Amino acid sequence: MEKLQDSIYQLIVETSTNLPNDVRRAIKAAKEKENAGTRAALSLGTITENIEMADENISPICQDTGMPTFEVKVPVGVNQIKMKKAIHEAIARATKDAKLRPNSVDSLTGKNTGDNLGEGTPVIHFEQWEKDVIDVRLILKGGGCENKNIQYSLPTELEGLGRAGRDLDGIRKCIMHSVYQAQGQGCSAGFIGVGIGGDRTTSYSLAKEQLFRTVDDVNPNLELQKLEDYVLENANKLGIGTMGFGGEATLLGVKVGAMNRLPASFFVSVAYNCWAYRRLGVVLDQETGEIQEWLYKDGEKVDLNTTNEEVAATAEVQDEVREVVLQAPVTEEQIRELKVGDVVIINGMMHTGRDAIHHHLMDHDAPIDLNGQIIYHCGPVMAKDADDNWTVKAAGPTTSIREEPYQGDIMKKFGIRAVIGKGGMGPKTLKALEEHGGVYLNAIGGAAQYYADCIKEVKGVDLIDFGIPEAMWHLEVEGFAAIVTMDSHGNSLHADVDKSSLEKLAQFKEPVFK
Ligand SMILES: O=C(O)C[C@H](O)C(=O)O
Ligand code: SF4
C-alpha cells in the first residue's frame, strides 16, 4: 500500500480545489436561467469565476474546507487501521500545504489542533464489500451550511405550511420548509440530501449519504422520484435566490432516501450543502493503493468561464447599479449615504473578526484602534511564504448571524462603521446600524479565491492564539466588492427576502401527495 497516502492526498487536494462535473453543470444551468444583470446573476458570475480560479490556483474553492468525511469500502482483509493512519497523514499534509484550513477545534477550550486531526476529526466510515478494489469517497462540507441542516419529528407544525403529518405530504412540507429556513445563510443556491425514517442519528446519516449521489441521478423509488422532482421545481419558486439576494436559483439538487423507523418515531432530516459542493471519489488498487479511477469526473470538464455575451450583459447593468468607492477607514457621513442595493468597492484596510474575536471584544480592549474601521467576518486559509511572511490562500466571508448577539454593541464600543459577511444579520444589528451609523455589506459566500485576490498585503495579525481562522488578521485590500444589504436607514434586504419567501412558502400549504 505504498501509494495509499499519496492517493488520499490527491483526493483531498482535488476535492478542495476542483468541483465535480455534475455540480458544475447544475451551477452553469442556474446561471443561464437567471436574468442577465440581476444581482443573482452577478453573484453567480462571481461564483463561477471563483470556481475556475480555485481550479487554476490549486487552492481551496472556499476557505471553509469543512469536516473531511470519508466513506470507504474495502475488500475483506484490507487493514483498516493502516488505512486510517494513511488518511490521517494525508489530512495533516494537505493542511500544511494550505489545501485545507485547520478546522479541528477542541469543543471546550476552543483550541485549534492546527492539523485537522483530533477527537472525531476527520470522520471515516468503513464498510466491507465483495469487490477486489478500494472505493474512497470524500465530502468537504462547510460549517455554515452544516448549521442549516434541520431535523423534523412528525407530526409537527411548520411556519407557513401548517400541520405536517406522518405521510408523504408531511415529508414534502418539511423539505420545502427546510429550504425556506436556510435562506441564503448556507450559501445558496444549495443541494439537499434528505433522510426519511431511522432514529435521530441514522436519519441524519442517511441524509448525508444522499449527497454522494450525483446531481442527475434518478431515484429508483417512484414515489421518492416524484418527491425529488416536485421539491426541485417548487423550492425554486420561493424566490430566495443566490446568497439570499432573491432570484430564480435557490435549490440545485435534491436527493431523498428512506429507511425503516420505529413505530413511535418519524424523522425527516435534511442535510443542506452550499453551492461549494465538494465531493469526489477514487477507486484504489487494494495491493498498492494506487488510483485506478476517479469518480464524479465524467467526460470533459464543464467550463464555467464567463462568455463574452455575459461580460457585455454585466457591463450594461453595472452602469445602472450605484457603485461607491470607499477608502478605509471611513466616516459616519460616508456610511449614512449608503443604501441597500449599492455596490461598495473597498480599498485600504479591513480586519477579520469572527466568533472568538466578537466574544473577546465584549469585555476586552481591541488590539488596534478600530475607530472608522471595517470588520470582515472571515476565517481565512493562511500560509507562510519562503521569507516567513503570511500570505492569504483563501478568504471568503463567514455566516454573520452568529455574531448577532455582539455585533451592535461592538460597533458602538469601538466606532466600527462597516461589517462584511454573508447571509445577513438580525433586528438587533439593524437597530444598531441606524443608531450608530453603520452598514452591513454582503460578500459572496464561498468566493474565497475571488476575495483572496483582492488582498494585497497581510499587515499583521493579533490574537493568533485563537487559531488561524479565529485570529484578527489586518489586511490591505484593493477593489474588494460587496453589496449593501443592511443600511443605516432601517432597510434590510434579508428581512425583505425572508418575508416574501415565507409568503410564497404558504402557497404550498395544500396537500399534493395524498
Ligand atoms: O467557517 C467559515 O469560513 C465559513 C462557514 O462555512 C460559513 O458558511 O459560515
Ligand atoms: S462559506 Fe458558504 S460556500 Fe463556504 S463552506 Fe460555508 S456555506 Fe459553504
From TrEMBL:
GO MF term list: 4 iron, 4 sulfur cluster binding; fumarate hydratase activity; metal ion binding
A matching Pfam family: Fumerase
Residue stretches making up the Fe-S hydro-lyase tartrate dehydratase beta-type catalytic domain: 290-496
Highest taxon of source: Bacteria
EC number: 4.2.1.2
Metal-binding among keywords: yes
Keywords: 4Fe-4S, Iron, Iron-sulfur, Lyase, Metal-binding
Catalysed reaction equations from the record: (S)-malate = fumarate + H2O
Primary enzyme class: lyase
Cofactor(s) this protein requires: [4Fe-4S] cluster
GO BP, sorted A to Z: generation of precursor metabolites and energy
Keyword Lyase: yes
Domain Fe-S hydro-lyase tartrate dehydratase alpha-type catalytic, residue spans: 6-281
UniProt cross-references to PANTHER family, sorted A to Z: L(+)-TARTRATE DEHYDRATASE SUBUNIT BETA, L(+)-TARTRATE DEHYDRATASE SUBUNIT BETA-RELATED
Function field: Catalyzes the reversible hydration of fumarate to (S)-malate.
Subunit structure: Homodimer.
Protein family according to the UniProt entry: Belongs to the class-I fumarase family.
Name of the featured protein: Fumarate hydratase class I
Source organism (scientific name): Alkalihalobacillus alcalophilus ATCC 27647 = CGMCC 1.3604
